[in-house]
């Protein structure tokens, strides 16, 4: 007869309540509570409601400036990034110069410089009157020029993360550098870049508040104009904060969802 | 015997290649005839990959001349493209495109370089998958395949361009032992069809069954070359003997 060893049953420990509590997104609950509290205020308090409605008038401008700037910054950033990893010494150095230039100057200063110095200068060069380009357009141009440099670095990192062997495989099949970049490297790089691009989109959304200094009537500027006559600083700036917080929260949840889908879809 | 006046498929003349001050290739000269299977053996770091990669201009020689099927491999983009269209390459790490299915891996360059239609390139791709023995894997992604299957897809991908020459850089050294044979069998079939092949590999079985000639490289030079049984049986140089004694135990 074989010896029957007394072996304890090995079972995975049931995940206890503690683990669930530790993993619960408490931060989200807290932020949602704050948002919920403010929403209740807006519903019950006519003063809050008035201010909310006022700021709401700037929302479309904020969203519009964010969306347009991001699309063009993506395109500009892609070309800058390709220049950055180019074999051509000239292209590479032009791109690096530009990127370092932008990264070395505060964004607020760049917004002034581009809107009030670079754009008018270019307008004059092309024989246009100084005020031919609206302030909103100047704001968009400034954000595109600034974020293009940031996004170029994202593209560079994404491209460099793809092994050298992929470029060689493409080249050995007779594809040109650009064809291999377009059909082999970039599709893989873009997938890796989604989180970083998402962060840049959220940062851009927040940075549109800076173009209020140009008088563009996005939500920050609308709030500033409103307090200058109502003097309701607390209500106005709390609601303005609520606007940005809700938008970045929605965006970041949306981006997480897209990333999860991209991963499943490979 | 073929007339000696026929130009070789690959002619390598006094090719040198430096990485900084390090001499990876030292005045290498080598001819490969049409239909010939040349095997290159030698210790790690002896310049085998570098030599192979000079043939399709993935590396640019610092001195010397390479002519492939009558085309001078220089910095002229037209020449480079013409040569790459004739030379297929198989890498140690497969280098399949991970974001494309197996069939799209094989079709991409056909469509972008050869300008074949989607339907035509797919017909060719399916025939090649049949040939390398994995027709049922067409719709999968590379990561879903075993190493041996991936390498066979890589061979099919190169063959789809209808090359006259195939270069293999240690095609089986990243594979688990049980998968080596399936890849070697495909290469063997290719050799028997008369493909011109340059193979960097230490697979002795393949050398005995398929290679017409073996070249032994060491420190950026071709130390000796000859028929497989001669190189493996009665090597002339000490370094060849030492190297062979190590890999043959
Ligand atoms: N891109 C490179 N930069 C610097 N050194 C290199 C590079 N590629 C290869 N080498 C060096 O050249 C030598 C020959 O390399 P390689 O041709 O890959 O050898 P093998 O394929 O025979 O192992 C090695 O010493 C290697 O370190
Ligand atoms: Mg090697």
Automatic annotation (TrEMBL), chain A:
The chain crosses the membrane at residues 24-44, 56-81, 101-123, 135-152, 237-258. The keyword Transmembrane helix applies. Its main location: membrane. Pfam families: BPD_transp_1. Residues 59-255 form the ABC transmembrane type-1 domain. The keyword Cell membrane applies. Keywords: Amino-acid transport, Cell membrane, Membrane, Transmembrane, Transmembrane helix, Transport. It is found in: Cell membrane. InterPro entries: AA_ABC_transptr_permease_3TM (IPR010065), ArtM/GltK/GlnP/TcyL/YhdX-like (IPR043429), MetI-like (IPR000515), MetI-like_sf (IPR035906). It is a multi-pass membrane protein. Gene3D superfamilies: MetI-like (1.10.3720.10). Belongs to the binding-protein-dependent transport system permease family. HisMQ subfamily. This is Amino acid ABC transporter permease. It comes from Candidatus Chloroploca mongolica.
């Amino acid at each position: 007869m074989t010896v029957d060893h007394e072996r304890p049953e090995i079972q995975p420990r049931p995940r206890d309540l503690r683990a669930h509590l530790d993993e619960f997104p408490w931060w989200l609950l807290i932020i949602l509570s704050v948002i919920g509290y403010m929403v209740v205020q807006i519903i019950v308090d006519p003063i809050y409601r008035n201010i909310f409605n006022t700021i709401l008038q700037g929302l479309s401008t904020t969203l519009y400036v964010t969306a347009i700037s991001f699309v063009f910054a993506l395109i500009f950033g892609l070309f800058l990034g390709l220049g950055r990893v180019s074999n051509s010494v000239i292209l590479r150095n032009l791109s690096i110069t530009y990127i370092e230039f932008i990264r070395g100057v505060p964004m607020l200063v760049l917004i002034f410089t581009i809107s009030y110095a670079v754009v008018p200068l270019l307008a004059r060069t092309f024989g246009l009157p100084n005020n031919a380009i609206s302030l909103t357009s100047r704001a968009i141009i400034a954000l595109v020029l600034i974020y293009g440099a940031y996004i170029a670095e994202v593209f560079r990192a994404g491209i460099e993360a793809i092994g050298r062997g992929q470029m060689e495989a493409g080249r050995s099949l007779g594809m040109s550098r650009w064809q291999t970049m377009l059909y082999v490297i970039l599709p893989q790089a873009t997938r890796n870049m989604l989180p970083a691009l998402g962060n840049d989109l959220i940062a851009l959304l927040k940075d549109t508040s800076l173009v209020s200094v140009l008088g563009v009537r996005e939500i920050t500027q609308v709030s500033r104009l409103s307090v200058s006559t109502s003097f309701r600083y607390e209500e106005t700036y709390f609601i303005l904060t609520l606007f940005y917080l809700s938008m970045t929260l929605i965006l970041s949840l949306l981006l997480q969802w897209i990333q999860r889908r991209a991963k499943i879809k490979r | 015997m073929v007339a000696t006046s026929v130009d070789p498929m690959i002619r390598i003349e006094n090719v040198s290649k430096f990485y900084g001050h390090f001499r990876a290739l030292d005045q290498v000269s080598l001819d490969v005839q049409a239909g010939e299977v040349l095997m290159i053996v030698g210790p790690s770091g002896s310049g085998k990959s570098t030599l192979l990669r000079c043939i399709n201009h993935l590396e640019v020689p610092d001195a010397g001349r390479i002519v492939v099927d009558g085309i001078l491999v220089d910095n002229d983009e037209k020449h480079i493209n013409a040569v790459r269209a004739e030379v297929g390459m198989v890498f140690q790490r497969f280098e399949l495109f991970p974001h494309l299915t197996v069939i799209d891996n094989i079709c991409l360059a056909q469509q972008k370089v050869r300008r074949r239609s989607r339907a035509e390139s797919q017909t060719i791709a399916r025939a090649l998958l049949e040939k390398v023995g994995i027709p049922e894997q067409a719709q999968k992604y590379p990561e879903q395949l075993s190493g041996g299957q991936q390498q066979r897809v890589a061979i099919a991908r190169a063959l789809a361009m209808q090359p006259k020459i195939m270069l293999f850089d240690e095609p089986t050294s990243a594979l688990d032992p049980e998968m080596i044979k399936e890849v070697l069998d495909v290469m063997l079939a290719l050799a028997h069809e008369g493909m011109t092949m340059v193979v960097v590999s230490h697979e002795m079985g393949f050398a005995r069954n398929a290679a017409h000639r073996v070249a032994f490289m060491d420190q950026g030079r071709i130390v000796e070359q000859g028929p497989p049984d001669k190189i493996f049986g009665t090597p002339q140089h000490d370094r060849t003997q030492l190297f062979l004694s190590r890999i043959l135990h």
